[in-house]
Design goal:
alpha+beta, TIM Barrel, Immunoglobulin-like, 2 domains, 16-stranded mixed beta sheet, 6 helices
Amino acid sequence: MTKFLFKNDKNIYKANLHCHTTVSDGRWTPEQTKEMYKAKGYAVVAFSDHNNLVNHSYLNDDSFLALNACEVNITQSLPDEPFEKKKVYHLNLISTDPNIRQTPPCMEMDYNDMDAINKYIKDRTEDGFFVSYNHPYWSMQTYEDYSRLEGLFAMEIYNHGCEVSGGYYGYNPQVYDEMLRCNKKLYCLSTDDNHAPRDAFGGFVMINSKSLTYGDIIEALKQGDFYSSQGPEIYEISLQENKLHIKCSDAKLIVVYTDGRRCHFIEGDSLKEADFQLTGNEKYIRVMCRDKDHRDANSNAYWLSPTLLP
């Protein structure tokens, strides 16, 4: 019997889940943001301005959906150090209910108080938000910092703004693997974190949803029915017994990462599908497809062991 881990069998919607506008420190107004992203084929944008959740439902139409969101942060207290050397936690909060319109509390705790930070994540989740961890490399954080985070919905595996404007600190696959190895059952996102034209249209999520309504998009995100990309497309990831089958757009490399040291991969020209034989002992797998321009698409992690299902 074939089990589909991911299959583009509904409607696929292109989304940017981390976006800044003139409401905070972005260059485009919300209206301009909608116009620019729609022109590039996007159907969903989470307007995540700093510490300010604004209802942008007036932007919604039959082909565009605005998600209410905001980005909150806490910075390491080192008075004698410049900001560029201070560690920070940046979290995106996406409202799962369009009727939530009040900005969540700021992160007002000590940077080193992990109990308070994790309580903040728990409280915001209970308030009705997806809580995602942003750009760990740009944030100057190490395993000691992010491995202690609990209860996250997702983390950014790719942040385009940090990649093009922050010294190539935007791609974080090692961080995602390290968190998975700690049994953190979270999804991964590719986002723009755009503030200006230069950092737009580089990281996105493809959401497989029944329709372009707030409820259906949130449900698809909740179920992990999406993948993240810088360009390539993933059409299908299926499992029959221990045989993994992948379909994608043209790729030069397809890789299956697992919880162990060994990974499976195939290289070639214009690869459109691949089969891999698993051992049956993998706790989880995740898929990466790379195109000729060295752009990656990453699936979420799929937990295969019945005792470790999220």
